[in-house]
Protein: Cation transporter
Organism: Aquirufa antheringensis
Amino acid sequence: MKQRLVLLSFVVSVLIMAAKFAVYYASGSTTLLTDALESIINVVAACFAYYSIYLASLPKDLNHPYGHGKIEFFASGLEGVLILLAAAYIFLHASQHLYSSPELKSLDVGMAVSFVSAGINGLMGYFLVKKGRSSHSPALVADGKHLRLDAYNGILVVAALALTYFTHWYWVDSVASFLFAGFMCWQGIHLMRESVAALMDETNPALFQKVTDWVVANKKEEWIDLHNLRVQQYGGDLHIDCHLTLPRYWDLHRTHDEIHGFEEMLKELQATHVEIFVHADPCLDECCSHCSIADCAIRQAAFSKKIEWNQMNLALNQKHFNETLARS
């Protein structure tokens, strides 16, 4: 499904690119050149997104024990690099025409093509972002966001061309290109920043909060403590590590069953694959004050209050006591 969507994006981008370059050569407008160059990025990005989604769908192997999903983040970063390269060329081209008065023709046709392509890119981008988020595909989301931003650029292109067409202020064409190139630089840097963060396994606060909320909503009394929680995203898949504190008087069979139930609960977090590694910790005497198991046979202190599980304390590699923290 994801590959078919990217293939559709590629076909649409090729058709739009051909139309934009045709009106650029007919008009000579640097603003239209800006729009056409961004269409090249759409085509190249769609090609690499298709390949990255194909790689991400491959099963794990000995060389890739966590799967191939991170290639989608690389695809997103490559798209950012291409955007920066196109912006640099637009800066150079626009500066060469800033003080000249080139003859601009067929601006009305250029406005029509830019307006129609902006509508198509906007709808396609909205659809790709929606499907990418539902399938947890960074490559689809990145491609959709770029198409959506390309649609916004198209609307600004129409506005700049209309101003040039009706006022004959030809300098507007170059100035608008500078503005669009600056916006493209911001867009490219933003995509690269997100890609590098994901490749470096930087914590995604929204995703970590989603996991935290899910665990808290399904919490059982037997789960005395949870800490050292790690959430990593591999394309559309998730990898979760944590330490779960359970009663130390349980036998191995019961501990295994409880951990299995904990893992199955986490796997319901999202539709895509979730891989979980749980380290079982035995409870300590200091845990009694926040352990709510009523029939505990080895309790050393009365229950006083529960400890809130949140992003801050679940990420720590420490057991949580009411007032102090001890190394696990």
Remarks:
- The domain at 2-199 is CATH 1.20.1510.10 (Alpha-lytic protease prodomain-like).
- Residues 223 and 246 are 6 Å apart (CA to CA).
- The chain has two domains: 2-199, 205-327.
- The chain has a mean pLDDT of 82.
